[in-house]
Amino acid sequence: MQGILLIDKPKGWTSFDVVNYVRKLVAAEQGTKPKNTKAGHTGTLDPLATGLLILVIGKEYTRKVPLLSKVDKVYEVVMKLGETSTTADDEGEKTAVSDTIPTPEAVVGALEAFTGHIMQVPPAFSAMKVNGKRAYLLAREGKEVVLEPRPATIYSSELTSYNYPYVQFTCKVSSGTYIRSLVVDLGEHLGTGAYMSDLRRTEVGQFKLADATEVKDPHLFDHLITP
Questions:
Q1: Domain holding 178: CATH number?
Q2: Is 46 part of the annotated catalytic residue set?
């Protein structure tokens, strides 16, 4: 069995959870052991995030991961103003920063200020490696995590809804962009603090969420594509 599966990842599942679940199904279908079944994904989604996760199945397609991962992506983002979070998302410990209510014009201005080529610091709770160890593992141990700024490109950010303290916007970004870091930067720019309260990925390169299927679809492999 070879090909690509477009999955709408549910909230609470890690990307590895999805791969592991599908790998077992593939193994059962082929009559092989899961550990001998080639399967992977082309770009992690946080457990709290939902949306498009691209799975590759079979040796021919797992080899293509580098080509399928270094592509632009589109996200629907919800950020909460007025507080920061230790993890930059809803899972962390919250700290109140300000009860100032920015105007819609100020919010749009902040989005515009972070459009284009920017430098951003990856979140401490990320999969970036520090001295060979994942940053989030060090952060969970209470150790200081120092990550260097890295380039990212925000092609566009469009405000879709603003009902304080929640801001919803859609953004198209380059590979390697951290949406949690973008939200933190927006909160600092507005002087209110902010953290990401929801995230949904809708596009990865040429692939779209509209073409994805649920991971527990009983006819999952009918959606296998071989571009």
A1: 3.30.2350.10
A2: yes
Indicate the angle between helix axes 179-190 and 104-113, nearest 10 degrees. Answer: 130
Domains identified in the chain, total number = 2
3-state secondary structure 172-197: EECCCCCHHHHHHHHHHHHCCCEEEE
Question: Which residue out of 8, 46, 89, 185 is catalytically annotated?
Answer: 46
Together in a domain, 89 and 173: yes
Which two tokens mark 161? 């809804």
Whole-angstrom distance, CA of residue 44 vs CA of residue 23: 16
User: Residues 139-165: pLDDT tens digits?
Assistant: 455 555 566 788 999 999 999 999 999
Residue 170, by phi and psi: left (phi above 0), alpha (psi -120 to 50) or beta?
beta
Do the beta carbons of residue 78 and residue 198 sit within 8 Å? yes
SS3 109: helix
Mean pLDDT of 25-36: 88
End-to-end CA distance of the chain: 14
pLDDT tens column, 172-223: 999 989 999 999 999 999 999 999 999 999 999 999 999 999 999 999 999 9
The residue with tokens 């490696």 is 129
Q: Is the pLDDT of residue 31 over 90?
A: no
| pLDDT computed for residue 125 by the predictor | 56
